[in-house]
Fold this sequence. Notes:
Layout: H1 3-23, H2 25-60, H3 65-90, H4 94-128
Organism: Caproicibacterium lactatifermentans
Transmembrane segments: 27-51, 105-127
Keywords: Membrane, Transmembrane, Transmembrane helix
Amino acid sequence: MHLAGVIGAALTAAVFAALLRRTNSEYAVVLRTAAGVLIVLEILQAVLPALREISGLLSSAGVGGEYSGILLRALGVVFLTQFAADACRDAEETALASKVELAGRVGILVLALPLFARVASIASALVKK
Length: 129
């Protein structure tokens, strides 16, 4: 599906969700979430080749596989966190959305710990020289 298809699907789901909201708000939330999942899956199909290309470029540039893996996992955390938080907001659960975003931030911090350790060791080596 191309961008036009994604936009069309999103607009169609939004219109149907708005119509459902008047009579069955629970179904509207389910419809919005299902449409969001389908759109994200479609986007992932388009993004995966690009991520493989980025990983190949990082490898050819001499960036360690560990660091490129951290970067790609962090991107995944960002996208999933944003999707989950938006789904919570659609369900009018803003407090829950904030907690999901906090969990995403903590997840990225944990993923980045090896990078922080590497920067600290480089800084320590530079100070000793």
